[in-house]
């Protein structure tokens, strides 16, 4: 009898875990599908993180169109045209040019964590309220700095509103504020324009 109860409990736990994982996958697939249907996305956001016991907050804005984006965050501008990345630091007037890795793209584009979730993360549904889903994304690889990501999704708009990123030695939150879609941007919007920054020192690492 004890063995039967143990087997039943184990089977029930396994089936429940599978169902939760499937629910999370359906939700994430729906989110990614909706994002891909937009011609473009423009979002303002706030990044908060702790450093040496002090909490810091920085405001940013990102525009995405296809696999291109331009991101402005606290004195740094990043342009990516689908192949090449330009990272410009305002304080020292220096722009670094690279052909970035997937990790480098993810570090400058918070939406990349969502669009690449199937490749990089195992999803699970932590909670479902009347207004939001809370999804936990656990990295498939244990070699990176991210322990897990907690993603909050608005049920009515099916848009992400917050990412809580648990790192090996710290944590970070990204609160997504305004959300605009389906504007048209020229391809030049996603490349560094030297004429706008005539004093910039160029460091080409390609």
Polypeptide structure, described:
This protein has helices at 2-37, 102-108, 112-115, 117-120, and strands spanning 41-51, 54-65, 68-73, 76-80, 85-89, 94-98, 121-128, 132-139, 146-154, 159-167, 171-181, 201-204. By secondary structure, it is α+β, with helices and mostly antiparallel strands. The protein has four helices and twelve strands, in the order αββββββαααββββββ. The protein is globular and about 50 Å long. A hairpin with a 3-residue loop joins strand 7 (121-128) and strand 8 (132-139). The model is unreliable at 1-21 (pLDDT under 50).
Secondary-structure map with pairings?
Blueprint: H1 2-37, E1 41-51, E2 54-65, E3 68-73, E4 76-80, E5 85-89, E6 94-98, H2 102-108, H3 112-115, H4 117-120, E7 121-128, E8 132-139, E9 146-154, E10 159-167, E11 171-181, E12 201-204
